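seq:
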Amino acid sequence: MTAILAVAAVLLDGLLGEPRRFHPLVGFGRLAEALEARWNSSLGRQGIRARFLGVIAVLLLTAPFTVFAAWLESIPIFGAAFGVLALYAALGLRSLGEHAGAVQDALAAGDLAEARRRVGYMVSRDTGDMKSGDVARAAVESVLENGNDAVFGALFWFALAGAPGAVLYRLANTLDAMWGYKSERFFYFGWAAARLDDALNYVPARLAALTYALLGDARQALYCWRTQAGGWDSPNAGPVMASGAGALRLALGGPARYRGEWHARPALGYGYPPGAADIPHAVALVRRGARLWLALFFTGGLFGA
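struct:
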């Protein structure tokens, strides 16, 4: 049953993409913004108090929705339909390809300004002074990293814990994207969101890295994963991006500017710097990985039966 529901959700994502209106995560994001603005005041952004409030905020924003999802899933007949909708809302496979495709099209047309604008929807780094190669590199990195966040992580938790697992994973990932920064504002308050996202992604990220290796240059991917992932600032993005870079035989990583400050990121992968033509290769790698996972779900279901 899990495999059938997962396939239905992936097909629904491919058919409809992300909801253009009334996306549940948009409303959730507004709720999180309001709570953060109220609790994470300038007077309380230091030390234990801010960290404690961050923990409570994460619990208040994730636990009720997760429990509610578990209740809805338990309802006969309707529960299966809700499971499909919950996973569909947590997935972003089609939108990932659409965002990446828009960057590729702009680069292919020689419209660097549009390419910078489009890649700005995918990454949190500064894009205003990027060269075409920087734009392509940022797009490929985002596709590889979000392959885990928007596809494999959601599939993993749905397979493990059904609709509540997918809901919890997506909400935690959203909070991490909003609060999980080591800035003055979020260093303490965002600690709980970042740690929860790290915990939920630990296994899926390594399975995603293994998926990239199996579907690309396996030897290169595994070598890059083993030797380069530890130098990345994120314990989960490191394996995913290092393996993906090796699988595609691309040189990723390197310096990038965030909020006006340059960060000396380590190099990932080996080979040539990515160009516009390499962006669809990264998207194809994620899509093949999703198909592999669905096939494994069916295989596991058959063995389980």
